[in-house]
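User: My advisor, Dr. K., asked me to get a structural model of this assembly before our group meeting. I'm new to this, so sorry if the format is off. These are the inputs:
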Amino acid sequence: MLQQYSEQAGGQKIEIHSSNHSFALWRLLLYATADFPAWGDPNSPANSYLSPHYIQKSIEETGVPNLVTSVLADYRGFDTMFETAVVFCAGLACFLLLRNFKQKEENFYRHIPTGVIIQFKKGDKTLPVGKEFEHIDTEWIPYDLIIKTVCRILIPFIQLYALYVVAHGDFSPGGGFQGGVIFGSSLMLYAIAYNLRTLVQRVKEKLLGLFCAIGVLIYAGIGVVCMALGGNFLDYGKLSQILPVDPGHIRAYGMLGVEIGVGITVMAAMVIIYVNIVSIGRHDEGL
Amino acid sequence: MHWQIDLIILTFTIFCALAAISVKDLLSTAILFGAYSFMMCLLWAVMGAVDVAFTEASVGAGVSTVFFVAAVFRTSRRTKD
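Assistant: The format is fine. Below is the predicted structure of the whole assembly, which you can bring to the meeting.
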């Protein structure tokens, strides 16, 4: 942009001017950083009122050792609920913008025993996909045995790790967001190692949409249950009336439920976004 | 205390950031963004913000790189400007 304008103006004057301006702005911003409190300064405004309360009282008030989780899911639970809703909206927006229900004009099939490739120019003719024929992409590459085998071994472990991250969000780093993202990326790895059709057949689009909404509903539902039991919205302490667990740990159980909701939504939204981007909304062939 | 580690990681971070905006090949840009995210993740971990580092590693270096590669796969490989 800058170069175009300077070429139109026929000289370098504009370019020099704007670079001077940006340099001045840069210096101003650098000068203003001197006013910031030093890193880790215990007397800075951000560290003097709320943080000491969280650090000193968090374990006794919530019973959760991981401070970050207790702040995110309990003290700021309302915030996190709408973050989850934002992820849901991102998945929904990708679906609405990109999804294309029209079938493709050309279809390619491969006769498995002979390896002959059949092309249909009109979309209305189809072959029964099964042991004899398989649906293939326009730019078909034979499957690599090594990639397929390695992914088949790796995917269960990745998914188990994702579940561990969700379940141990209270005690170690992690939680619903990270666990959901890891679970979603294991499904993406499946699509990359095999092909997109295999993933779409295994994990149906309707199921993903349902999961995406159910996660937010679990989160909001726990809040509403707390309200129905006589507390505030997302006041997990009130859940001890219906859950037969140690009342000291009831807030940890409430947070676990909330994190599971977050994980489900994030997992489904990531897969929806990936499938829609990589196949331009057609859900047939892609990376 | 950790200033040598900090310096090395910061140098790599700035190098990755500058390379990501100057490279013409969009696939390389996507990969460089992944490397940049990973360096940021290490920086968070050095500063003790392990939760943020975990998020950066899984979301920034993992999934968003896949999304970038998917978008490059469906558009053009080379940038026009």
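One thing worth pointing out at the meeting: Residues 2-51 of chain A form one domain.

User: Perfect, thanks a lot.
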